[in-house]
Amino acid sequence: MLNRHFIEEIKNSLNSKYFTLSDFQIESSESGSPLLHIIFNYADYDFKFIEVEEKDIYTETARYSFSGDIKRSESYTRYYAIYSPGKYKATDKVQVSFAELAEQIESWSSYIANDLVVVDNDDTLFEQIRDELEVVFTVKDVENEGQVASFEEQLDVSEKLDKLYERLEELNKKVQFASDEMIKIKDEIEMLKSSSGQMPKGIWAKVAKNRLVEIAIKFFKTPEGRELIVHTIKQALPS
Q1: Whole-prediction pTM value?
Q2: Residue 166: how many CB atoms within 10 A of its CB?
Q3: Are 40 and 85 in contact (CB under 8 A)?
């Protein structure tokens, strides 16, 4: 059974920027497993902390060749956290120590928050957003579309895309996008800048439009969000 001080530490970890202790039920077993079971009150999410006896088997080379290899085993007590939703999967199972448990629970609460904001009909919503943005970002006739952009045109494109990324960084303060996603977007924009001098302008404009639509979808799922970003992204496309 977990002691009272440790249970209090667990309770504190549930008071996050997303939820409070009142949003969960905590069960602690006096014997057996799980040692700890946390249940989210409003959806089918839970967190279990279990104790498992495991045996590691290894082969040891005998001192004398005629004896053959010797198999030995050692038993260990290991602790695991099993929780849903996981970081990427519906359920995760990770080895964790007592010292790491509170931090793991805090992470789990953020996974719950992320999972709750994803609507059931994401695919339908994304298609709706894509259709709307396709109309907004329609690329009209590009002058000399079969030619590669001149050096001056490449500089103009590069400047527009740099300004676009700066604006996205400003908008990110509102949507709090993950830093690794922002790095990916930066890489995508850099790729667009370099390809502007390699592809015919007409094809590049269409490729750029599709890429920028994807970036817009990553950023915003609401009509208000789309209104916020449309003007910024449209400025990066050929007029």
Answers
A1: 0.49
A2: 11
A3: no
CA-nearest of 11, 80, 90 to 44 is: 90
Alpha carbon 181 to its chain's center: 8
- Which H, E and C letters describe 25-77, residue by residue? EEEECCCCCCCEEEEECCCCCEEEEEEEEEEEEEEECCCCHHHCCEEEEEEEE
Of the candidates 161, 156, 222, 159, which has an alpha carbon nearest to the alpha carbon of residue 188?
161
Q: Is the dihedral of CA 13, 17, 22, 26 positive or negative?
A: negative
Whether 94 contacts 80, CB under 8 Å:
yes
Q: Rounded to whole angstroms, how far apart are CA atoms 105 and 116? A: 17
What confidence tens digit (pLDDT) does each residue in 2-29 have?
Answer: 898 999 999 999 998 889 999 999 998 7
- What letter does residue 9 receive in the DSSP assignment? H
DSSP state of 150: P
Where are the alpha helices (H) located in the chain, listed in sequence order?
Answer: 4-14, 98-116, 122-136, 151-175, 179-195, 201-219, 223-234
Contact 229, 171 (CB under 8 A): yes
- Strand 46-60 vs strand 92-95: parallel, antiparallel, or unpaired? unpaired
Spatial distance between the Cα atoms of 31 and 120, rounded to a whole number of angstroms: 39
Tell me, what DSSP letter sits at residue 148?
B
Average pLDDT, the chain: 78
What's the pLDDT tens digit per position in 206-223?
A: 888 788 777 777 666 544
